[in-house]
Structure formats: C-alpha cells, structure tokens
Amino acid sequence: MRRAKISVIGAGNVGATCAHWAASKELGDIVLLDIPEREGVAKGKALDLMQCAPIERFDSAVIGTSDYKDIANSDVVVITAGLPRKPGMSRDDLITTNVKIVRSVSEQVAKNAPGAVVIVVSNPLDAMVYTAWKTTGFPTHRILGQAGCLDVARFRCFLAMELGCSVEDIQALLLGGHGDDMVPLPRFTSVHGIPISMLLSDEVVNKCMQRAKVGGGEIVQLMGTSAYYAPASGTIQMVEAIIKDKNRILPCAAYCEDAYGVAKGQKGAGYFVGVPCVIGSNGMEKIIEVDLVGDERKLMDESISHVKDLVGAVRKIFPDLA
Ligand code: APR
C-alpha cells in the first residue's frame, strides 16, 4: 500500500509542530518546506523529528527542503507560511504581507501538487483561504481553512476546566470566521449528550465562549508570538480525516454560497466561512447546515460580514485576486 504524503509549507512554529503531530500519528511521509534562506532550518527540524522515530515508533519519513519539486504527489498540502502575530496585533494586521506569501506559495502548490487537498493555516485565515483558492484555481472542495478545529478545542478545553470532567466528553459547535467574532453555539454544546445548560450557568458558559474567542490573543500576550501546539493539532485532525477518508464532521473554513445564506444564489461569488463539514479523502465532502435562531443568526451574519470585509480588503490591495 502506498503511504500517504503530507507537505507542510513553512517550517516555523506551526509548520514544524504539524510535522511533529503527523509523524507521531504515523499519517504518512512528510515534507517540510521553507524558503531557501531557511532550508537549513527545515532540514534540521526534519532530521530532528526523524530521530524521534525509534523512540516514538513511527516509520514516517520526514524531509526538509526548499525545493517545491519535493511536494509532488502530495495528498495534502498544509500552508503555514507567513508572519505570526505580535502582541497588540490583530490577525487582520498581517493581511498585506501574508497575502503575498500565500499567493507565491499557492502558485507553487498548483504547479507541483495539482491533485492535493490544501489546508490553509496562515492568518488572517479567512482571507488566506480565499487567496489560496483564487491562486491555485483548485475546485472549492479541495481548499479548506483550519480555524474551527482549534477554536472549538479551546472552547471544549475551557468548559472541561469548569466542569472538572474529561475534555473527551464535551461536544461543541462553532461557526463563522476565525476572528474574535467567531460564533460558538451553546445550544449545540453537550457533555456526553447532556445539554451544557443543565450543567453550567449561562454566565460560566459565556465566560468560556469569550475566552475561546480571544484565546489566540491571550497566548500572544503571554508568549510574544502566536500559538502553535493547538493550531497544529487542529490542522492534523483535518489531515487525518482526509488521509484516512474518515468522513469526520469538523468545523472548517469551507466555500459557501447558498449554505448559511453566505452568498445566496450568487454562483461563483461565495466565501470561505467556518461551518461544520464532512471531511474525507476529497477534502470537503459536504457542508452540514443547521437552522440558526435569534442571536445565533445575527452573530453569524456579523461574522460573515467580517469575512467579506477581509476578502474585500484583499481584492482592493491585490485587484488581480478579485
Ligand atoms: N515560502 C515558504 N515559507 C515561508 C515563506 C514562503 N514564501 N515566507 C515565510 N515562510 C516561512 C518562514 O520562513 C517561517 O519559517 O514561514 C514560517 C513561519 O513560521 P513562524 O514565523 O514560526 O510563524 P508560525 O508561528 O509558524 O505561524 C505561521 O500560521 O497560525 C498562523 O498566524 C500564524 O500566519 C501565521 C502562520
């Protein structure tokens, strides 16, 4: 049986940690690619990871490179190239620099790994997924953004801390863009099937939601740069679903037109927004639409409108991406 191949572009904190989780789960062979000036870093990290193999017992090969030919025949390409946040910055502040980077990476991905499913992690996420889509020209089901897996993991983590129970037993759903206006949905949050409202007060649930929304910023303040263990872990959750064709239901940034009223009836004019998706070997197999009520609809509309503004900003600065 052929081993799966996973290429990770950007061998920085998020990229190298993606390679780490992917290798430790033995998901396939891994290519870690960075710019020529940082080829030594990519090669060094790859070698370091390979030397864990006898201890951690995986047979994945990990190679470092700056040559895009090495990503040929990838099943999945993860894009983590780009600047991370510094304290005081929002994700949106990174837009101009990171669009240039993600565009140049996406051109190479289209040329060298034309059959891959692409997962974008670089921020501001919703604008970067759009950039990767426009640049590669890949069908929409093969372009995904990682945000929801991370955001929902943060929410579940804070709820488990309040409840003193296993994080494994908490199910939660979260929609919208990867900004502070993401939309956690307590109505769809439960603990081993028990609605969260039966176990925690609204006040405590709201506190957890708020902390999840600004969870990235909390870590930037503490470390001086953005998080990487959990962003990489969320990414590899998606990679695993694709490689193993698991049809897992995961919250991902996926292309929506009619879904969730993002661009109703406007063929080809949709946006990538965080929604629950079935994730399998084709990438996004299906979007699952749930009926939103009251405030949920209002908050989702606000979040969608922020995503549209971000993409609008990309189109304004880079008219060729319109
Ligand atoms: N091609 C390939 N790699 C690139 C390119 C490029 N054109 N431009 C930059 N890189 C590489 C950098 O050399 C660096 O190794 O991307 C890597 C980024 O690593 P870090 O600076 O450690 O940033 P990281 O914390 O990994 O975050 C990367 O993911 O979660 C997001 O907000 C985060 O946008 C940021 C991205």
Protein traits:
L-2-Hydroxyisocaproate Dehydrogenase, Chain A, domain 2, globular, binds adenosine-5-diphosphoribose, Rossmann fold, alpha/beta, 6-stranded parallel sheet
Provide a descriptive summary of the structure in words.
- The strands form 4 sheets. Strands 3-2-1-4-5-6 form a 6-stranded parallel beta sheet, sandwiched between helices. A 3-stranded antiparallel beta sheet has the order 7-10-11, with helices on one face. The protein has a 3-stranded antiparallel beta sheet with strand order 12-13-14.
- It has helices spanning 13-24, 39-50, 53-56, 95-112, 125-136, 148-163, 202-213, 215-223, 229-243, 294-317, and strands spanning 5-9, 29-33, 62-65, 76-79, 117-120, 143-145, 170-171, 174-175, 183-184, 190-191, 194-195, 248-256, 271-280, 283-287.
- Strand 4 (76-79), helix 4 and strand 5 form a beta-alpha-beta unit.
- The protein contains 10 helices and 14 strands.
- Bound molecules: adenosine-5-diphosphoribose.
- Adenosine-5-diphosphoribose binds next to helix 1 and helix 4.
- The site of adenosine-5-diphosphoribose has 28 residues, from helix 1 and helix 4.
Largest sheet, order of strands side by side?
Answer: 3-2-1-4-5-6
Number of helices: 10
Give the H and E element order.
Answer: EHEHHEEHEHEHEEEEEHHHEEEH
Through-space gap between termini? 42 Å
Q: Compute the gyration radius: what is it? A: 19 Å
- Please identify the structural class as seen in this structure: alpha/beta
> Judging by the overall fold, what is the CATH architecture of the largest domain?
Alpha-Beta Complex
Number of strands: 14
CATH superfamily annotation of the largest domain:
Lactate dehydrogenase/glycoside hydrolase, family 4, C-terminal
Mean pLDDT: 95
Report the biggest beta sheet as strand number plus sense, adding barrel if it closes.
6 strands, parallel
CATH class of the largest domain: Alpha Beta
| Approximate strand percentage | 15-25%
What does the overall shape look like? Answer: globular
CATH topology (level 3) name of the largest domain? L-2-Hydroxyisocaproate Dehydrogenase, Chain A, domain 2
Helix content: 40-55%
Which small-molecule species are bound to the chains here? adenosine-5-diphosphoribose
Number of spatially distinct domains: 2
Question: Uncertain regions: pLDDT < 50 for 5+ in a row?
Answer: none
